[in-house]
Structure formats: structure tokens, C-alpha cells
Amino acid sequence: MSAFHDLVLTDLGGQELPLAALKSQLTLVVNVASECGLTPQYAGLQALHQRFRDRGFGVLGIPCNQFAAQEPGSDAQILQFCSEQYGISFPLSSKLEVNGPQRHPLYRLLAGEGADFPGDISWNFEKFLVGKDGRVLARFSPRTAPDDPALIQAIEHALG
Q: How far apart are CA 7 and CA 147, in angstroms?
């Protein structure tokens, strides 16, 4: 298994979220926030998840409060917001640090030193496309909408 698939997160319900469960799928990892100008991207992420899930694709949301404190709620509040406002059906972890000295191992792997696409996360809704083998295939800026042709093309290409 890859280092990506070796990681175990905690979901918003407090249960283990082993990334090994994502081994059979192409995964779009996105740091998310509920009070951001980009929060409406949740709708597009859910649509993307539904559009490609039968082909082996899924979204993984990672709430983060490091950017202007735009994810201040508790896990229960985040889960309620995502369910009620956007009908989110993809997995969401509990809040993680994506930058700085407390950067979670997931983000050290995605964007840390030695990563294929290194560098600090610039804002909420930055996206990493992770292949079934756990390698990062592409990185997209927060402003890249879920329906952006470049993102769709990268997903379709990776799915074959």
C-alpha cells in the first residue's frame, strides 16, 4: 500500500476513516470551509462525486480553520451544515492543519517537502487528485471550480 493509503483520519462522526478504503478509487482531496466565499464549491464537489463515483472516483473533504477562521464550527456543526446545505455524501474528516508546524501527515504527503506538487496550501478549496496507487497526479488552485474543464479532463484521463 502507498503512504497515502496507510493513513487513518477521523471522520466528522468521530469514527476512523482509513484511507485504505479509497485504494480502489481516484480521489479528489479538498480542504474545505463552511464560511468561505468559495463554500458554494461544495455543490460542485457533490455533483462531481455523483457524476464519477460509479467509475471509481470520489471526493474526500478535509475541513480546515487555518484560513481567516472560516471553519469555526464543531465536527457536528460542520456535518450538519454540509448535510443540510449541500447534501454532501462524500466522506469528510475532522478538522486538520494543512500548513505550518502542525501540518497533518496527509498534507505533508500531498504538499510537503519531496511531494510531487510541494508548497503551502494557499486557501480553502485547494484540490489534489490522488490516483488509485496513492500518487498525487495533479494539484488545482482554490479558484478552480469543480466543473472546470481542466479538472474534469484530469479526472477522465486518470479514470481511462
A: 28
Residue 124: other Cβ atoms inside 10 A: 26
What is the per-residue pLDDT across 114-158, written as a single tens digit (0 to 9) for each? 999 999 999 999 999 999 999 999 999 999 999 999 999 999 999
H or E stretch covering 50: helix 41-52
Instruction: Please say whether the beta carbons of 128 and 136 come within 8 A.
Output: yes
The catalytic residue among 9, 30, 36, 98 is 36
What is the SS3 assignment for 85? helix
Concerning whether 64 is annotated as a catalytic residue, the answer is no
Instruction: Catalogue the E-assigned strands of the chain.
Output: 8-10, 16-18, 26-32, 57-63, 127-130, 136-140
The length of the chain, given as a count of residues: 160
- Residue 31 contacts by C-beta under 8 Å, 6 or more apart in sequence? 62, 63, 64, 96, 98, 121, 124, 125, 126
Q: Exposed, middle or buried: residue 74 (CB in 10 Å: 0-12, 13-18, 19+)?
A: exposed
Q: Residue 32's pLDDT is what?
A: 98
